[in-house]
Amino acid sequence: MHNFLSFDTRGLYCRAGGFYLDPRLIVNHAIISHAHSDHAVRGNKNVYCTAPTAAFMKKKFGSKGEYHVKDYGAKFNIGEVSITLFPAGHMLGSAQVLMEFEGVKYLYTGDFKTVADTSCEPFHFVKADVLYTETTFAKPSFAHPDPEQEISKLNNYSGINILIGAYSLGKAQRITQLAAQHCPGKKVVVHSESVPFHKIYESFGYSLGNWVRYEKNLLKENDNIIYVVPPSVYFKHADSKKFLKTFATGWKQFYRSNDLRLTISDHADWRELHALIAYMKPKTVFTLHGDGSRLKKFFAGQAMNVVMLNGKQKEESKQHSLSLFSDENTFR
Fold first, then answer.
1. pLDDT, tens digit, for every residue of 136-194?
2. What is the pTM of this model?
3. CATH topology assigned to domain 147-262
4. Domain boundary assignment for the chain
5. Which residues are within 8 A (CB) of 60 and not within 5 positions of it... i.e. 6 or more apart?
6. Which of 4, 93, 207, 221 has the CA that lies 20 to 30 A from 130?
7. For domain 5-141+266-330, is the CATH number 2.120.10.30?
């Protein structure tokens, strides 16, 4: 059980199946949980993923390689391992990966959240013996507020345009939909970098509400606009007084640069992690993508074992959280 998945230079490897989960480098067989660049790289020969993830990756990387598109709940095999994808709730097309081998069930969450989000498929709780989970916000201090209440705070501001930083894939679409639903008196404008992904969302039947593509003179004609932009554009306006500036993120240390806090994250907080573990009752939990030390300490001495699979998690998490704002994956 403890050797089913392990890290090597390319990423998280399953020897029994001969495949990688969200590899960092090019491999022959890659199961991709979702299309963010810290989980999906260009050039894998065989990619196993959902239809939306394939669409996003083809838009970002082109069609090189063979895409094996899988429906949620449909079992398939790679090598000796039986695999089923289930919704992860992180963004459209995001998937948890359930792997079955020699009578043991292993679940890899990828990035996930369990809170309601109508811009993507809802999280699906899955039973398994072993859990491999992200721990991006695995501290008791992280308790994300209701996203609808957060976006509704923008209704308190008038006479000024609002600039919202949100990475182009996943967060920009969620913010667009939330703003369109809960800020009806404002016009939602979307930067051109996000527009192709908005259209892919809508092609899969996910309405994002009323929004328009940014045009050069649009902001001069209106003072009641919500302008959704990627990080690189957001920080070009860092010193501008023309906007009320905010960034949709769960990272508390980044609120200092904003005029307003907008705590909207696409990752599970401390409560959501515990709800997942309580439901699954796994025998072992392996922590990934963040600092799992608090989770390990919380369950110390109990029947369930918590293992920090990547021993450098804590330092990597610190460096990740302090990285440049231009990195789309910083803003979770």
1. 999 999 999 999 999 999 999 999 999 999 999 999 999 999 999 999 999 999 999 99
2. 0.93
3. Rossmann fold (3.40.50)
4. 5-141+266-330, 147-262
5. 35, 37, 40, 42, 169
6. 93
7. no
